[in-house]
């Protein structure tokens, strides 16, 4: 992650992710038309918040860390532009799963 | 479950399931037309998350384990494609029941 | 309950019930037309889950047991087919009452 | 209450009530037409459940007892037929008040 | 409050109130037409329940007492007829305020 | 605040406020037409309730006191007439902020 | 922040922010028409409340401080005019993230 991310810190249990670049070609090498490119659900965690407090007041640690590859839900997330690059903010609890590195 | 699943880990109280293949023939051996094939509600658990925290902050263990045969609810679940195979993510609390192995 | 039920275990606070056979004749012996047969609300418990956890994390025991005769609510319940027989899954908290054996 | 009620036990914080018979005549002795008979909101408790658990898991005792005369809310309640007699199930918390015996 | 009220006891955190008689004349002595009489929001407490339990199971005492003059909210409340007189049931938490006697 | 307010006591976490008189002229001295007078959001606290109980049963003290100048939200609040003067009841938690005296 | 803000104190977990002035020109120096100016989501914290109480009654400290640069969500926030300048009130939990100074 470039220096910019160390500067930006999501709050509470939010995590900042960068989606993978979409596959422009099918396995067989045929170009996929722009419109047909579904939303990319694979992404990398670029910044994480400190975690949110539960009802008893203790901060709950997050389950994902910077650099991990995660699977995003189809809906939700907030688009955020930082230094002209497109990122998305999700809640830790909305991330579906991660790939053990 | 193939190596791929050990790599992918659902988060919180989510479990990854693979539905049984649909019965293509009736008991009497007559082919069932594609359209008439209802959703298959029998499935196998292929990966489980670590569990979710309850209000007091302790992680609640899951009630199903990898390899168990379970009964899925008719609705809900998130379709997920991993290495071109179709799986579904459910919450542990949504699984209706399981067959004692 | 046949062996099949011992094998199938509802999860959390769900209970599996089998509705009584509908009365086909009125007290006076007149056949009741199929359409007029209301839903049968009397049933027997055939399998019970382990119970669900409350907020403090302890498992809450169920109030009905296998073999007991219960009164079902008019609505709710999930139809489940096990070995071609029709059962219903209810939450323990939705069962209206039971007859002391 | 007849023997039948001792056999039927409402569950959790439900109570079984039997509504008073409607007044068929006005104070002045004039017959009230069937349609004009409003719902009878006075009733007697004929069976009570064991009570429901609160969040900390302890069972909360009910505030009404068998034999007490209570005032029902206008709406809510579940009609239940036991041995061809009409009763109603209410939650303890829905009973508006009671007459000190 | 007449003997009737000592007999009727609201349950949980409900309180029974009797609205003041509406002012039939303006300050200047002009009769107010029936239709123009807004709902009277001033009332007296005639009976109180024992209070409701909070989540930890302890009974929460009420903030109003029999005989106090209170200000009712414009909406809500359940009309109740006791011995042909009109009263209203409110939750203690819905009473807006009271006049120090 | 006149004697009347000491007599009226809001209940729970309600506070009684009196809105400032609207500015009838613009800074430049031009009369503002009645219709154009927006709702006045500046007000003074004239009476406060004892506070409400939280889930563990302890009374939570209020954050505003009689005499303080506060900023009201645009919506919400209950109009209340006491001795022909117009006041408003708000919940302590709805007051947006206050001016340090 | 001018003196005025030290005087105004948001209540509970509200924070007062001042949005950055919108960029009137594109990177290439072309004037952006008024209508095309999206909402500015970058802002500075000018005043913070004392924090809100959680369920157990303890006050939860805020995660942002006066002077910090924050990223606002696209929706929500309450417009507030103080001494003819435009500010916005947000809940601490709604602020998406902040830039480490």
From TrEMBL, chains A, B, C, D, E, F, G:
Pfam families per UniProt: Cpn10
Disulfide bond is among the record's keywords: no
Record bears the keyword Chaperone: yes
Keywords from the named record: Chaperone
Domain of life according to the entry: Eukaryota
PANTHER family reported in the protein's UniProt record: 10 KDA HEAT SHOCK PROTEIN, 10 KDA HEAT SHOCK PROTEIN, MITOCHONDRIAL
Protein's name according to its UniProt entry: 10 kDa heat shock protein, mitochondrial
């Amino acid at each position: 992650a470039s220096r910019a991310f160390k500067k930006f810190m999501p709050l509470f249990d939010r995590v900042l992710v960068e989606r993978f670049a979409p596959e422009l070609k099918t396995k067989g090498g045929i170009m996929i038309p722009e419109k047909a490119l579904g939303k990319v659900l694979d992404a990398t965690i670029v910044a994480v918040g400190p975690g949110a407090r539960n009802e008893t007041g203790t901060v709950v640690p997050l389950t994902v860390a910077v650099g991990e590859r995660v699977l995003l839900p189809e809906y939700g997330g907030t688009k955020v532009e930082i230094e002209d690059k497109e990122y998305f903010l999700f809640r830790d609890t909305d991330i579906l799963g991660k790939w053990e590195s």
